[in-house]
Amino acid sequence: MNTLLWVLVGLAAYSAAALFLSQRGLLPSSVRIQGPFTTVHTKRGRDFIDWIATPKRFWRAWTNLGVGATLVIMAGMFFFLLVQGIAIARNPPAPSSVNQPQNFLVIPGVNDFLPLSVAPEIIFGLLVGLVVHEGGHGILCRVEGIDIDSMGVFLFTIIPLGAFVQPDEESQREASRGGRTRMFAAGVTNNFFVTFLAFALLFGPVIASIGVAPGMAVQGAYDGSPADAAEIRQGDRITAVGGVPVGNESSLDAALLGTNERTVAVELDGGDSAAGRESRTVDVERSLVVAGSVAGNPANISVDDEPIAVTAVNGSPVYTRAGFAEVVGEDRYAELETDRGTVTVPVGAYLTRVAEDGPLAQSGAPTEPGVIVTAIDGQRIVSSTELTRVLDGTEPGETVTVELYHGGEIGTRNVTLGENPQDGSGFLGVNIFPGTSGLLLTDFGAQSYPAGTYLELLGGDGGPDAVGLTGAVADSPLATVYVALVLPLASLVLGIPNFPGFTANVFNFYTVGGPLGFLGTGVFLLANVSFWMAWINLQLGLFNCIPGYPLDGGRILRTSVEAVVSRLPIDDRNRVVSTITTGVGVTMLLSLLLLIFGPTLLGG
């Protein structure tokens, strides 16, 4: 039985049990059940809301600003969901981690992209989001003279989904249409304001107080690799190799390529004095292994769990990447002896993508995956490292001769280079698979943690290896919103691990200083709280702008349609209003259901 079926069975059982208890009067009067949904009501706190609502002019002016923004976002959400729903219905995508139903819930540990390690910060952000949202409704109720019948929490079975303020229906009907609209818009207005405040804190003094520690941050080591055998673990920082200081991943790579010694001394900062791993030196006995591969590589090798050992190249034993490059020399092909057999492959940098409008494609080169760059201007390219190094030494507008392998043949193209958006050097317009010929070939095996890239994306200084936003997105005033949306999904959007926040296991990768340096590691807690508070409040605001009942967007849609229809020469205005709002609401419901369940139920 799959997960979705278990969920559906659980919902049916809960609904049946709740109905049984409700019909027999076994539930308190404050608890109300509708299928799998539960609401808990209370009348406490109304006097406090009356006190806060005293400056009525301020609150009206505040929500008038929010109404305009909400209407624009409502229109955007309508078209987004409509287009997505139609696309999924016409061509359902295959189920993947991003479109699993549980990943639409803001529940750490259940949602694959919300780690349990920052559950307290996420829950706190959700609590703040719900309080300011429903508090906004309650305040504007009293500003507009609408009585509050009750307040409470809204649950999906036992999972809290939100809080609510329930206006008195009669006094709500008597309020002006503008007053009701302001009341409905107050919640999302407050959510977006909290998002702005959290962004201002995060992208301002918080990130300015965090720097990247010198060395290469270790995400982990490939199972069975030399680094794994030397017990180099997640949380370590590699600070030197063979006495050569290491400042980042690039300098580690250069240090390893700079020596052909099989055994190298690696200096580590573990950052954990309690575990006796604060700093140490380990000897790593290097051996050449294939730790990963891309589908369709010319060696037809697929790496599962254990790396594949490379024992010889062209009949000569090799232990390092430098030794590999030396044995290959100027040959375009090499015979690899592995523990899975012997295979002959073209040797070069494997391109996973050639942009159709990029410089390489414009030279007439093939655009399908599988193109291998073997030389540039006569300089031999053995791996992705050499290709990146050669391109770093070129200029935009420079014309170079690129030698390519594709379809069993080697040919050349004259390419006029574009400009690399990251560093301004020459640019081919390609994506490069790390390693050689579609094989992640390594003599070390430590995986880097993108500490600098995370910091760069959050507006800090991530150092020379960091990759930030580029192009139109980077220049947009909404760049911070984009970052907040995609960092928890970074593995799908940016090709790096999903951002877990600044948790204790990554403290060793950063330094603290600047305006909030006096807080010490408390800066990381503040960064986590502000990041997740911004992310959650943004999600709450956007979701509630969907123009469908009972969401705020659906209620604002009704008051807006009423305002327009009231000016038309129509007899039965209520029917027209109901037809329009019901049609839009049903469309949004179907689109949401397709978005959440479509890939699982309809996908291949």
Automatic annotation (TrEMBL):
Keyword Disulfide bond: no
Pfam families per the UniProt record, alphabetical: PDZ_6, Peptidase_M50
Domain (PDZ) ranges: 204-272, 338-408
Keyword tags: Hydrolase, Membrane, Protease, Transmembrane, Transmembrane helix
GO biological process: proteolysis
Cellular component GO terms held in the UniProt record: endomembrane system
Chain segments annotated as transmembrane: 6-22, 65-89, 192-213, 478-496, 516-536, 576-597
Annotated InterPro entries: MBTPS2 (IPR001193), PDZ (IPR001478), PDZ_6 (IPR041489), PDZ_sf (IPR036034), Peptidase_M50 (IPR008915)
Membrane topology recorded in Swiss-Prot or TrEMBL: Multi-pass membrane protein
Molecular function per GO: peptidase activity
Annotated compartments: Endomembrane system
Principal location: membrane
UniProt xrefs under PANTHER family: MEMBRANE-BOUND TRANSCRIPTION FACTOR SITE-2 PROTEASE, PROTEASE M50 MEMBRANE-BOUND TRANSCRIPTION FACTOR SITE 2 PROTEASE
Name of the protein: Site-2 protease family protein
Species, as recorded: Halobellus litoreus
